[in-house]
Write a structure and sequence with these properties.
Elements: H1 4-10, E1 22-26, E2 29-36, E3 41-45, E4 51-57, E5 59-64, E6 68-72, E7 75-79, E8 85-89, E9 93-100, H2 109-113
Antiparallel strand pairs: 1-2, 2-9, 3-8, 4-7, 4-9, 5-6, 5-8
């Protein structure tokens, strides 16, 4: 199976959309809300910690290096730590990433949560 990183490189150009990110914080929890239009992809990355994601609206395919799964809203999905993943909207979608963190600086949040390449 082709790795998610390789797929991401082949798909450059369809990532250029403003996902209208909304940052939500509450006592050690962070929820990142994204709106992903049909046909667009939220780029590949991995996290140092497992977390939950919620598909609130639409239909998506979640691809990892080892699998791909289609989800219809509403759905609660576990994203495992250290697994590259990307989300492609098969319909207009609203997606939430839920993380346990005390970081509340929106300029640093991705730096804290997204695993650095090695």
């Amino acid at each position: 199976m082709t790795s998610v990183a390789n797929i991401h490189e082949k798909m450059l150009g369809i990532f250029e959309v403003d996902p209208g990110i909304v940052h939500n914080f509450s006592d050690g929890l962070y929820a990142k809300q994204m709106t992903i239009p049909k046909g667009f992809t939220a780029g590949q990355h991995a996290h140092a910690f497992s977390h939950l994601s919620i598909l609130a609206k639409g239909k998506v395919i979640v691809k990892t290096d080892n699998a791909e799964q289609v989800y219809d809203a509403p759905a609660c999905i576990e994203i495992k730590k250290q697994v590259n993943h990307m989300i492609t909207a098969l319909e207009d979608a609203v997606w939430f990433c839920i993380h346990a963190t005390d970081e509340t600086d929106v300029d640093r949040i991705d730096e804290v949560l997204i695993q650095k390449g090695e």
